[in-house]
Write a structure and sequence with these properties.
single chain; about 200 residues; alpha/beta
């Protein structure tokens, strides 16, 4: 919740009145199996009426167990299996670059366990090698990854040419600073440390 709120309240350049504006920032919720907080933030920011929350995840609601970009205003990616968000965000960042759209940034929220998916390894390597500096990843680390990474999560990105920051995942000021101070010419990864999943 803290990362989502900080992104939508302080960082993302978005306008609910113009949800498809070319110059908007993009946000990808890769951990799409847990959208309740995401929906609450989108409703609070005016993307859809708060009343939609009352029957979320029912047969008649547009707010399903995974966000659907065709049904929910403000959603950039229909989420499904873990491991899709970062590859899609990488492709979007590259597409913006190729169109000459240099101001929009692409943000993606991952869980630490999701980094076990091989598609993320490929996206991390590609984004670093091509210097996609309009791409920002936030990894919420609750110590649930099966394999981990020597030197910690940030090193997984740094070894592939990313700039990195590790912050207290409950500190909104620290999250904002980390998200808004990437190094030029490199994609940026923020590791947000929170309480262990089974603590």
């Amino acid at each position: 919740m803290d990362v989502l709120w900080t992104l939508y309240d302080r960082v993302l350049r978005i306008d609910p009145a113009r949800p498809d504006a070319d110059d908007r920032d993009r946000f990808f919720l890769s951990k799409g199996h847990g959208p309740a907080l995401y929906y609450a933030v989108l409703a609070d920011k005016g993307f859809f009426p708060a009343e939609w929350l009352d029957d979320a995840a029912t047969v008649t609601s547009p707010l399903g167990h995974h966000p659907d970009r065709m049904l929910v205003p403000g959603v950039e990616m229909s989420a499904g299996s873990l491991g899709h968000g970062l590859p899609l965000a990488t492709g979007t960042a590259l597409g913006l670059r190729l169109q000459g759209l240099t101001s929009p940034r692409v943000y993606v929220l991952l869980g630490d366990a999701e980094l076990d998916e091989g598609s993320n390894h490929e996206a991390i390597a590609y984004a670093g090698a091509t210097g996609l500096d309009n791409l920002v990843v936030v990894v919420v680390d609750n110590s649930s990854a099966s394999h981990g990474w020597p030197g910690g999560i940030a090193s997984r990105f740094a070894v592939n040419g990313w700039s990195t920051a590790t912050v207290d995942g409950r500190d909104h000021d620290a999250i904002e600073t980390a998200l808004t101070t990437p190094l030029p010419g490199r994609p940026h990864a923020v590791v947000a440390l929170v309480e262990p999943k089974n603590a």
